[in-house]
């Protein structure tokens, strides 16, 4: 790979002059610039981004740490973040922790070694070591969709409790009284808040609260949990799923048992990922603009990078119930 010294030798001028042309640090005459650019083209020289960042003390990159990149929610979130960052001259380094707390901490170290200008985190779960590492960061930090005890940072988050309340209230208003909840991994703050919203709606209606099923935020986990719930005479007439991926698994389990949705079983999800609109039946879900959530997070992080003294901002986004075909009144 060609170096800046190779370019200088090919152009027949000094290393320092080539550096001025490449980095724009000093005016250079047009004939000299032409020689340097010709040599660069001939040799295929690529300037070192690391070296530039050391001089400028900025890399033009931000880190993004997510728990599961295969979940369409995080894919759509990353797209919103990347779109905003790219429009503003920044690149995004994406790290996927696979819902692994230890991997999450390792990737944090990797990102910091890359000298990122800022970091956006959607954490796996509350973890003391990870929270301590984030609390000691010297780079701007943005938390998305969940908070961490002991970490003071900008945060943008959907009102999870309110969203789950809306979903459960919708099923109650349709006339359902045996409503199950497949919440997701119980150790996460997101699931705890959504479970609280589910319980609040049932308590207000004086309806029995069933145990919240604990599972991963995946379709196979939702499928397995729904198989248990639907196997028996006391099966629920409605299921609130902690996210749309779980809801997909519920729909599959219902189909395997010839349980008609929504005639025999209503299903409501959470997130409104794009695929939820194209299922059959299309999924009723608690909606949020995931891409806009990402854009909001990226915009705030870039503002903090440019103005380090900004006070931490906590933004809570109001969710919306998106009515589609997977929910209806129960059979009499």
TrEMBL record:
Record-given protein name: Transcriptional regulator, LacI family
Protein species of origin: Phytopseudomonas punonensis
PROSITE patterns: HTH_LACI_2 (PS50932)
Entry's Gene Ontology molecular function annotations: DNA-binding transcription factor activity; transcription cis-regulatory region binding
Domain HTH lacI-type: 2-56
PANTHER family, A to Z: HTH-TYPE TRANSCRIPTIONAL REPRESSOR PURR-RELATED (PTHR30146:SF148), LACI-RELATED TRANSCRIPTIONAL REPRESSOR (PTHR30146)
Keywords associated with the record: DNA-binding, Repressor, Transcription, Transcription regulation
Any Pfam family: LacI
Matches recorded under InterPro entries: HTH_LacI, Lambda_DNA-bd_dom_sf, Peripla_BP/Lac1_sug-bd_dom, Peripla_BP_I
